[in-house]
Amino acid sequence: GFVETDAEIMALAGINAVRTYEPITDTEVLDVLWGKGIFVLNTVYVNAADSIDVVVERMTAVMDHPAVLMWVLGNEWNYNGFYQKLKPAAAQGLLRDAARKVRSVDSTRPIATVFGNLPSAALLQFIGNDVDIWGLNYYRKHSFGPFFDNWAKLPTNKPMFISEYSGLTTPRINSKGELEEAAQAVETKSLTKDIVANSSQHSGGVCAGGFIFELADEWWKSGHPDVHDVLPGETFDEEWFGLVAYDGTQRAAFRAYAEIDLPSCAPGSASSPGCGRAPAKATDGERLKACGAFPSCAGKLGRCSPGAAEVVGSCIPDSESIAPTTLATTAAATVALASTTTTTAPTTTTTAPTIIATTAAATAAPAPTTIATTPTTTTTTLTIIATTAAATAPPASTTTTTTPKTIGDNHTANNHDMPDPESTTMTSAATAPLAPWIGFICASALWAV
Question: Most buried one in 47, 48, 175, 435, CB count within 10 A?
Answer without folding.
Answer: 435
